Amino acid sequence: MDVVTLGETMVTFTSKSSGLMRYASDFAMKVAGAESNVAIALARLGHDVGFISKVGDDEFGEKVRSFIRGEGVDVNKVTSYGGAPTGIMFKEKLTPNEMRVQYYRKGSAASAMTPDDLDESYIAGARFLHITGITPALSSSCLESVLTAVHYAKRNGVTVVFDPNLRKKLWGEEEARSALLEIASMADIVLPGIDEAEFLFGPSSTEQLADRFQELGASVVIMKLGKRGAYVKDHSFTGYVDGYPIDDVVDPVGAGDAFAAGCLSGLLDGLPVEEACRRGNAAGAMVTLVEGDVEGLPTKERVEAFQNQDVKEDVER
What we know:
alpha/beta, four-stranded mixed sheet, 13 strands
């Protein structure tokens, strides 16, 4: 298997009309979660991916499992739990270009995940273990599960990829900072946003923040800079990789997950880290053109066509 990831996937309700949710009467029901977004994106890019999670023993849980399976991701390690419901998220379109998200995930089935839900051999069979800072914020047992998964990966020579994906609504700042730094210190590849890096280390230059992650132990740092692209630092390349500015963003939610998947896809394909980051920038840009977390996730052929078109336009200019 190429990648194993673990976390919570929720059923998402998006208002079909713009404005405050109190006035919405129609919603589209979809499925979303940072880690499963990455898993689905990698599957679309042609990779073998497995997902570990818990869902409620309810219809929403069945929808989550069925949807992710249908996208080509292995869900044999997604278990049903009768003691809590599947998490729910509402997306409120305040304006056509402004989205607000409200979570109803406290006490969800995924928050009951424990190290006993992990199969070491399943993680050991992957090339990469992908984790985010969302899962450890769900509960103390979820934090313990993430740390155990990292331990299993390190013991079996699996590369650990960490996206801090900070969610301040889920836990206190000091608790979050302590846990995220602990996980970052065990990661081989880190994918922080610039705001997340400053949250962990304080305001500083992009270059200095990348250095701090490497001082913790990461061998590769790929720092997300939004529409400006990313800053990369590893043993073979250090520098900025330009992004693909999008003038008419439809839905920015999920862009970071697509970026992470694009980068990992490139590394799995043996691309130099700079080129892997370019694939990540392209995938992240493309997903903002379509409403929904996973609906706009591209195949490898579409990413390459998008990148080639961008190069052609640069040459013509």
